[in-house]
Structure formats: structure tokens, C-alpha cells
Write a sequence for this structure.
């Protein structure tokens, strides 16, 4: 039996617990709060025979409660809402299932599920828990969880986009994209944009962004070049990895982080551009987030 409240044991599981909470919530700040609350419960627990199973259940229930609260706030959000980006290691894309599960496109699909559907889908499809295990975690009977899992799986299947992990090829496409945007080369820019490309920006009502998603290569190219010639003309850019995707970090002339542009590449073409400018979602962007979907459920 595990020594109760042992910090080392909890720290070993922290990447897994954070990943579960983040995928249920789509917010790093809320996920960190859930993990911290779960640590307090772990510290005060009397006896824990299976730490991973115990903490996974605690984190899941805490995250579900938090999601039900923040869902109401997100319905009143000003403009388009995007998940809070998290800095990940470049090799995070080696686990393709994990990489897809934290991608912007997938997190936006998960946002269209109910809180319970989202938790069941994440636990079953990403972390490999059985429906019997999940039923105990969320305090529902097996038959109900089977129905929820089927409904969530069909919902996601109908909406998910083709996912390709970060690679040297995608980085080459992004370099071409960045140069074309800065130089105003509309033709080259349109050549690297997919026919169904979409650009979504999140300012949270605190900074200026496009008021709605922009779709199609011509509209997206014109929008990007207008930005490059206008408010972003003096900015500098660094390449990073966020949500297991390549990203451009945009800095003002004073060196302050203005925005993070996450870029999804599919079939050597850019299919999604997700720009986060809401300053509340950029505060912790420098902090690397180790992710895990450890399959051992002991």
C-alpha cells in the first residue's frame, strides 16, 4: 500500500493528471487548479492502495465539476474562444494519439460535447480506460456510460479533422508561409493554404482580433498580409511548439509576447491557423508542460 500523501509519488503522476485535466477543461490554469486541489485530497487521504487509479478518479471528478462551471462563462465569452495554448516538447508529437488529443482542432471538437461526454471520451479514447472503470470514476452505471461513450465517439468522428503530427516537412511549409506573409507574396501564400483553411483568433474582448473565423485561402491570405503590413509590421517571430503543433510566437518591438499562432498542417498544406492574443491565456506560455497518457492503471 502506498505511503499516503507522499509528494514524490504524486509528482511522478503529475504529468498524467495535468494531461487528463487539461483535455477535459481546455485550460491550463484551470487544469493546474484541479491538480493542486487533487494533491490536497491525496495528502489528506487515509489509505490509498492504487495511487494512479485513485488520483485519476479525483482529478476527473474535480475537472468535471470545474468544467460545468466554466462552460457557463464560455457561453458569455466575447468573440471566438480558443483553448489556452500549452508549450510542449518538440518530441510530444511522437505519440500521435496524445498529440492529436491536445491539438487545437480536437480540443475545439471536444468543446462541443457535454461535460460528461467529454470526460468519458477522453478517458476511453485517449487514456485507454475501460467503460467499467470510467463508470466508477464518474459515479454512473455501466449501461449509461456505454451510451455516453457511443454518442461521444460518433459526435467526434463526424467532426474531427485529419491530423498530422509536427514534422520537418511541416516546419518547411511554415517557413515558406511566414516568409510569404511578411513579404506580401499572395500567390505563394495561397499555394501553402489548404482549400478549407480556417483562421480563428481569440482576443477575449481585451485586444483587437478578427471578429469571426476567416475561411478559404484567398480570404485568409488577404487577412494575413493586411496584418503583416499593418499592426504586425514591426513584430519579430520565433518558432516554438505548442499543443504538439508548430507555432509562431509574435513579439512586439519592445519584446513583449503579443500572440501565439498555432499552425496545423495536413497533406503539406496549412489547414488551420489558431491565433491566441487574449493576454490572460499568454501569461504561463513560457512554462513547458510535460504530457503523459500512461497506460498502466494500477
Amino acid at each position: 500500500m502506498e505511503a499516503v500523501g507522499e509528494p514524490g509519488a504524486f509528482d511522478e503522476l503529475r504529468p498524467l493528471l495535468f494531461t487528463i485535466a487539461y483535455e477535459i477543461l481546455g485550460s491550463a490554469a484551470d487544469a493546474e487548479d484541479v491538480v493542486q486541489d487533487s494533491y490536497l485530497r491525496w495528502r489528506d487521504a487515509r489509505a490509498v492502495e492504487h495511487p494512479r487509479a485513485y488520483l485519476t478518479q479525483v482529478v476527473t471528478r474535480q475537472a468535471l465539476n470545474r468544467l460545468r462551471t466554466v462552460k457557463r462563462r464560455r457561453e458569455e465569452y466575447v468573440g471566438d474562444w480558443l483553448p489556452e495554448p500549452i508549450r510542449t516538447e518538440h518530441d510530444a508529437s511522437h505519440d500521435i494519439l496524445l498529440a492529436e488529443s491536445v491539438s487545437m482542432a480536437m480540443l475545439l471538437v471536444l468543446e462541443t460535447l457535454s461535460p460528461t461526454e467529454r470526460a468519458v471520451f477522453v478517458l476511453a479514447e485517449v487514456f485507454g480506460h475501460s467503460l467499467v472503470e470510467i463508470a466508477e470514476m464518474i459515479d454512473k452505471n455501466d449501461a449509461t456510460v456505454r451510451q455516453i461513450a457511443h454518442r461521444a465517439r460518433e459526435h467526434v468522428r463526424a467532426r474531427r479533422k485529419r491530423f498530422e503530427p509536427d514534422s520537418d516537412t511541416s516546419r518547411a511549409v511554415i517557413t515558406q508561409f511566414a516568409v510569404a506573409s511578411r513579404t506580401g507574396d499572395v500567390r505563394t501564400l495561397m499555394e501553402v493554404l489548404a482549400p478549407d483553411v480556417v483562421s480563428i483568433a481569440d482576443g477575449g474582448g481585451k485586444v483587437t482580433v478578427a471578429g469571426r473565423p476567416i475561411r478559404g485561402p484567398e480570404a485568409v491570405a488577404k487577412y494575413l498580409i493586411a496584418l503583416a503590413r499593418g499592426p504586425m509590421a514591426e513584430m519579430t517571430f520565433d518558432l516554438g511548439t505548442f499543443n504538439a503543433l508548430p507555432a509562431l510566437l509574435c513579439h512586439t518591438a519592445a519584446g513583449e509576447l503579443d500572440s501565439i499562432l498555432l499552425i496545423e498542417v495536413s497533406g503539406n498544406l496549412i489547414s488551420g491557423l489558431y491565433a491566441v492574443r487574449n493576454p490572460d491565456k499568454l501569461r504561463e506560455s513560457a512554462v513547458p508542460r510535460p504530457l503523459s497518457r500512461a497506460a498502466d492503471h494500477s
Notes: The chain has a mean pLDDT of 91. Residues 51-74 form the longest helix (24 residues).
